[in-house]
Amino acid sequence: MAKTRRFLIAGNWKMNCLRKDGRALASALARRMAKTKGTRPPFDLLVCPPYTLLPLVAEAVKGSGIRLGGQDCHMAEKGAHTGDVSATMLADLGCKYVIVGHSERRSNHGEKSDLVKTKAEAALAAGLIPIVCIGETEAERDGGKTLAVNRRQLKGSLPDGATAKNTVIAYEPVWAIGTGRTATPAQAQEVHALVRAELVKALGEAEGHAVRVLYGGSMNPKNAKELLAQPDVDGGLIGGASLKAEDFWTVAQSCL
Ligand code: 13P
Question: How remote is the CA of residue 80 from the centroid of ligand 1, in Å?
Answer without folding.
Answer: 31
